[in-house]
Amino acid sequence: MGTTRFIFAGAAALCMLASSALADDMTGMVTRIDRLNGTISIQQTQKGTVGTSAGGAGALQEYKTKDAAMLDAVHAGDRVTYSATDTNGTGTLTKLQKQ
């Protein structure tokens, strides 16, 4: 019983961290644009220097776009600043700006 509670508590903590990470402005690199599905994949870059890997690459996330203009504003390989919200487990870009 104790192990089950520990697992559920860990999962809840991860969910809270993931949702709070989506609220702040983040930086990353566009890796893929899917115009048919209206999605953009972004490789998040690590902030700071403590504990970062040599490549400095973070998680790869796929986001739905708020509008079709976002799909045309960037290309694969562009470095971007972005904000996203999490709606029912699906990330949606609310702001996307090329650096």
Name a few traits of the molecule:
alpha+beta; 99 residues; five-stranded mixed beta barrel; 2 helices; single chain
Structure annotation, total helices: 2
The major sheet is characterized as: 5 strands, mixed, barrel
Unreliable stretches, pLDDT < 50, 5 or more residues? none
Q: What is the alpha-carbon Rg in Å?
A: 15 Å
Strand content: 35-45%
Identify the overall geometry: globular
Please provide a written account of the structure.
With 99 residues, the chain is an alpha+beta fold. It has two helices and five strands; from the N terminus they run H-E-E-E-H-E-E. Strands 1-2-3-5-4 form a five-stranded mixed beta barrel. A hairpin with a 4-residue loop joins strand 1 and strand 2. The longest helix has 20 residues, at 2-21. It is globular. The termini are far apart. The model has no long low-confidence stretch (mean pLDDT 80).
List the helices and strands and how they pair.
Layout: H1 2-21, E1 26-34, E2 39-45, E3 57-65, H2 69-73, E4 79-87, E5 90-98
Parallel strand pairs: 3-5
Antiparallel strand pairs: 1-2, 1-4, 2-3, 4-5
Question: Care to give the gist of this entry?
Answer:
This protein is α+β, with helices and mostly antiparallel strands and 99 residues long. The protein has 2 helices and 5 strands; from the N terminus they run H-E-E-E-H-E-E. A 5-stranded mixed β-barrel has the order 1-2-3-5-4.
